[in-house]
Amino acid sequence: MTKKLWFQVGVGILLAILIIKYFMEISFIFAPVIIIIKAIILPLLLGGVLYYMTEPIQRFLEDRNIPRWGSILFILVGLVVVLGIFISIIGPQVTKQVNNLVDNAPTLARDFDVIKDKLLRQKEDLPENLQKSIDSAADSLQTIAVNFSKWIVQFLQSFFQAIFLLVLVPFFFIFMLKDHEKFAPLIYNFFSGERRDWVKKTLSDIDNVLRSYIQGQFLISAILAALIFIGYLILGLQYALLLAIFALFMNLVPFIGPWIAVAPALIIAYMDSPKLVIGVAIVTLVAQQIDSNLITPNVMGKSLDIHPLTVITIILAAGNIAGFVGIIVGVPVYAVGKVIVRNIYEQRRKIKHAATKNVSG
Fold first, then answer.
1. Alpha-carbon distances of 78 from 86, 91, 168, 234, rounded to whole Å
2. What CA–CA distances, in Å, run from 327 to 42, 75, 142, 152, 242?
3. 174 Cβ neighbours under 8 A, 6+ residues apart
4. What is the DSSP string of 157-219?
5. What does the domain layout of the chain look like in residue ranges?
6. How many C-beta atoms surround the C-beta of residue 248 within 10 A?
7. CB 3.0 to 4.6 Å from 162: which of 24, 42, 301, 311, for a disulfide?
8. Which of 278, 262, 273 lies closest to 115, judged by CA?
9. pLDDT in tens, 319-333
10. How many angstroms separate the first and last alpha carbons of the chain?
11. Can you say how many angstroms the Cα of residue 22 is from the centroid of all Cα atoms in its chain?
């Protein structure tokens, strides 16, 4: 029985639970280490994202015999130039729309209360069962809104706390560009034989998954934000640029991000003209269909192969565990874990097949 896979998995889960339990009981011993990890985790993540976003440029340059230092310098100068152009072009428009939004905030709040009261009055004319369904849906939406607000606050707190540590981002970024080929050998060189080959393959698969996810998700978000911005401009929707920028960041959250991004656009459209809501809904639907049928299949392909229901479950669980940061990193962490588990399964099957072949031979 001890050789059965289900028994070994069960024992492994029990051991993991015991390790976590006893670790939590003596966690105060590791408090300094946890503080250090929390201090560097955000700069490390941002440096890693920048690396995966610019690695294709570095590879392109070095394939044309440009030295490593030259490719790094080109990327750094290019990032500064792009950021400067972006700020000079987008900055004034964003500032103008933010000021308009702040000035109109009291009016928007009053309009929103009027809409809410109107909907509540109309609800009383509906059948009792439908009223209960609406109340239940409203409670669910309120819970989601409260949790999302908490996630946003946690994210902003972490962000402002990390502002002082952002000087580490260029350090991690440059270090990754300079020595990224050395990271994997530092790990798999501790092993030998077939185990070394397995660790090497697993690290390579993890690298490919992270590269595909980060590059693909940012590209998809940028394309969707551009489509939404163009659509909102055609409709004449207020704060089109702000809403598109909000959509750019929300689209980084897989599956549910685009639906979160459209919520403020629908509210602003309804306060301006109820007919405009139909236009915003059409723009969103067209953008989502283009994304689902053209952009995502060609950008992501089958690199992740995660079912949408699994994505929703991961996002909800990660949000409850680690807040807004958990929502962002939940899917790639799951993808990495899936790669590791799949490689373990393939290795076990390979060993079992070899053992069976030797016995039959």
1. 12, 19, 19, 32
2. 14, 29, 19, 11, 22
3. 72, 76
4. HHHHHHGGGTTHHHHHHHHHHHHHHHHHHHHHTT--HHHHHHHHHHHHHHHHHHHHHHHHHHH
5. 191-355
6. 20
7. 42
8. 273
9. 777 666 677 788 888
10. 25
11. 31
352: Cβ contacts below 8 Å, ≥ 6 apart: none
Helix (H, G, I), strand (E, B) or coil at 29: helix
- Nearest 5°: phi and psi at 4? -70, 145
Nearest-5° Cα angle at 119, 285 to 286:
5
Residues with pLDDT less than 50, the chain = none
Distance CA 335, CA 317 (A): 15
| Predicted TM-score of the model (pTM) | 0.67
Phi-psi region of 273 (alpha: psi -120 to 50; beta: other; left: phi over 0): beta
58 half-sphere exposure, CB direction, 13 A CA radius: 24
Return d(Cα 184, Cα 232) in angstroms, integer. Answer: 46
Find where tokens 């998995």 sit: 9
Q: Report how far residue 216's alpha carbon sits from residue 49's, in angstroms, rounded to the nearest whole number.
A: 12
Alpha helices per DSSP H over the chain: 5-25, 31-62, 68-123, 128-162, 168-188, 193-235, 240-250, 257-272, 274-290, 296-299, 308-360
Rounded CA-CA distance 91/216 in Å is: 26
Q: Which amino acid is at 222?
A: A
Q: 318 near 326, Cβ under 8 Å?
A: yes
How far is CA 357 from each of CA 2, 304, 350, 351, 353, rounded to the nearest angstrom?
Answer: 22, 33, 11, 10, 6
Token pair in block for residue 357? 């072949």
Over residues 175-217, the pLDDT tens digits come to: 888 888 888 888 888 888 888 888 888 888 888 888 888 888 8
d(CA 305, CA 212): 12
Amino acid identity of residue 172, one-letter, is F
Q: Tell me the three state secondary structure of residue 89.
A: helix
The dihedrals phi and psi of 212, each to the nearest 5 degrees, come to -60, -45
> What is the reported pLDDT for 43?
78
For residues 291 and 228, the answer to whether their CB atoms sit within 8 Å is no
